[in-house]
Write a structure and sequence with these properties.
By secondary structure, this protein is α/β, with parallel strands linked by helices. The protein is built from nine helices and 19 strands. The protein folds into two domains: 108 residues, Elongation Factor Tu (Ef-tu), domain 3 (Beta Barrel); 159 residues, 3-Layer(aba) Sandwich (Rossmann fold). The chain starts with 6 loop residues before the first strand and ends with a helix.
């Protein structure tokens, strides 16, 4: 394990300063909300991670014995309460199992904080862009950018009105926010790239763009900003296993060099990322994910039928 990384495993944890009834299970869910269809916000008791984490860092979770490990960005933390906030969409077996956790249940393994904190500079005027539930990682980074003196414009894109998340929090941080939906059911109709193009073409000074969301979205944004030579940071989401640079699962090509997103990123210069290769690697295990999900859905159905 590299220096400075903290590992928190599931265990009983006693805070000696508290009275004897106050025994907390580390990794316990203390709150859970469904904030959009199949999209969940959870608060997890993980005091050491809550104390150490910085904007841009993530945790790697495992939710069942033989299961995969997967990363989730830490959206916020409350060091006093000892909790971290995570937001995820139930899209495969592991995230469906996590979505089935109730308040009081514990996550099997939770490791973090991992990844490099975002490099925060006073760039000037930045556009921060979140696509779908990729909006979740944008919030802590946008907050840190604003705290460093930047002025922010937010773009929040989603398929449709019901999928728009964290709009209020983005509005609290940004000078103004544009919401786009693919179907036009809320905000302007179109992709986040349409909103960004209009801002750039209106002649506004933009010193930096941050984008987090589906890989085709990040690629489209990088292609657009390259035309205008605007610095662009993207947060990559390749397959991750250990999250500590050992397995090679998160290998990406950036500027012709091999990088591991977990230890060299997850944020990179969007103009240097080989998005084609990233997308190919993201699809490598699709068949296993869908087989696992199908099997899990059958097990759930069987469990329900058996009462
Ligand atoms: P989605 O497919 O609904 O897309 C969200 C928005 O992104 C769209 O409304 C549109 O505005 C924009 N978009 C999508 N494709 C585009 C394209 N080709 N060109 C321009 N704009 C485009 O998103 P979703 O289903 O909510 O999925 C969210 C994605 O974010 C997932 O792929 C997930 O892996 C990714 N994500 C990434 C991170 C990270 O740290 N990098 C974190 C969380 C989620
Ligand atoms: Fe294994 Fe990055 S997740 S090397």
């Amino acid at each position: 394990m590299p220096d400075g990384k903290l590992v928190a495993q599931n265990r009983r944890h006693t805070r000696f300063s508290d009275c004897k009834e106050m025994i907390h299970t580390v990794n316990e869910l203390v709150a859970k909300n469904e904030i959009a269809p199949s999209t969940f916000q959870i608060f997890v008791r993980a005091p050491e991670i809550a104390r150490k984490r910085e904007a841009g860092q993530f945790v790697v979770l495992r939710v069942h014995g033989p299961g995969e490990r997967f990363p989730l960005t830490i959206v916020s933390s409350d060091p006093d309460e000892g909790t971290i906030e995570l937001i995820f969409q139930a899209v495969g077996k592991s995230t469906e199992i996590l979505a089935a956790h109730r308040v009081g249940d514990s996550i099997l393994d939770l490791v973090g904080p991992l990844g490099n904190p975002t490099e925060i500079h006073d760039y000037g005027r930045c556009v921060v862009i979140g696509g779908g539930y990729g909006m979740a990682p944008v919030i802590p980074i946008a907050q840190a950018l604003r705290d460093a003196g930047n002025t922010l414009i937010g773009i929040n894109g989603a398929r449709s009105r019901e999928n728009v998340i964290l709009e209020d929090r983005l509005r609290e941080i940004c000078e103004r926010v544009e919401v786009c939906t693919d179907d036009g059911s809320y905000g302007r109709k179109g992709f986040v790239t349409d909103a960004l193009r209009d801002i750039i073409e209106a002649g506004e000074q933009i010193d930096m763009v941050l984008a987090v969301g589906p890989t085709p979205m990040m690629r489209a944004i990088a292609d657009l900003t390259r035309e205008y030579e605007i610095k662009t940071i993207v947060s990559l989401n390749p397959i991750m296993v250990d999250g500590t640079g050992m397995c090679g699962g998160c290998r990406v090509e950036v500027g012709g060099e091999t990088k591991f997103a977990c230890v060299d990123g997850p944020e990179f210069d969007g103009h240097l990322v080989d998005f084609e290769m990233l997308m190919k690697r993201q699809k490598m295990y699709d068949h296993l994910v869908s087989d696992g999900s199908r099997q899990y859905t059958c097990q759930l159905r069987e469990a329900k039928n058996n009462g």
